[in-house]
């Protein structure tokens, strides 16, 4: 997966996808993306971890994936599966600061956040 999808990752493409589809993707998917993004920005994180993250984010960005993303809820289930897999692989790198940065950005974009959704995702990762 790492080589196949990592070529689709760029920070610019990521922000464009989130800006365009964040509401339809939902806070849980966007939270997963943001966790990966903030781990990727950490200078202490190794190259192999960053490749795993780039592949997962590249899959998220890729317009043609397993299930069409414009389909509400179901369209992002494959993306969420890939994000959860990647997050579980790099979970040791998810610091309290990474979580807080992701939550802050999510609150900025979505306003009120369903804390249970975020905890549900975190429980699948850790």
Look at the structure and give the mean pLDDT.
85
Derived structural class: mainly alpha
- How many helices? 7
- List the secondary-structure elements in sequence, H or E: HHHHHHH
Radius of gyration: 13 Å
Strand runs, count = 0
Low-confidence parts, pLDDT < 50 over ≥5 residues?
Answer: 65-74
DSSP strand (E) fraction? under 5%
Number of domains: 1
Termini separation comes to 22 Å
Which bin fits the share of residues in helices? over 70%
Global outline: globular
Note the main sheet: none
Subcellular location: Endomembrane system
Membrane topology: Multi-pass membrane protein
Keywords: Membrane, Transmembrane, Transmembrane helix
Protein name: DUF1232 domain-containing protein
Can you give a write-up of this model?
Helices cover 71% and strands 0% of the residues. It has 126 residues and is mainly alpha-helical. The chain has one domain. It starts with a helix and ends with a helix. InterPro entries: DUF1232, UCP031804. Its main location: membrane. It holds the Pfam family DUF1232.
């Amino acid at each position: 997966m790492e080589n196949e999808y990592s070529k689709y990752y760029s920070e610019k493409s990521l922000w464009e996808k989130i800006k365009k589809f964040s509401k339809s993707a939902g806070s849980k998917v966007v939270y997963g993306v943001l966790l990966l993004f903030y781990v990727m920005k950490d200078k202490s994180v190794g190259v192999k971890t960053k490749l795993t993250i780039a592949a997962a984010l590249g899959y998220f960005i890729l317009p043609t994936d397993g299930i069409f993303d414009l389909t509400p809820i179901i369209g992002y289930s494959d993306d969420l599966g890939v994000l959860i897999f990647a997050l579980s692989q790099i979970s040791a790198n998810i610091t309290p600061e990474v979580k807080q940065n992701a939550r802050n950005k999510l609150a900025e974009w979505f306003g009120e956040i369903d804390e249970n959704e975020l905890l549900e995702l975190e429980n699948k990762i850790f």
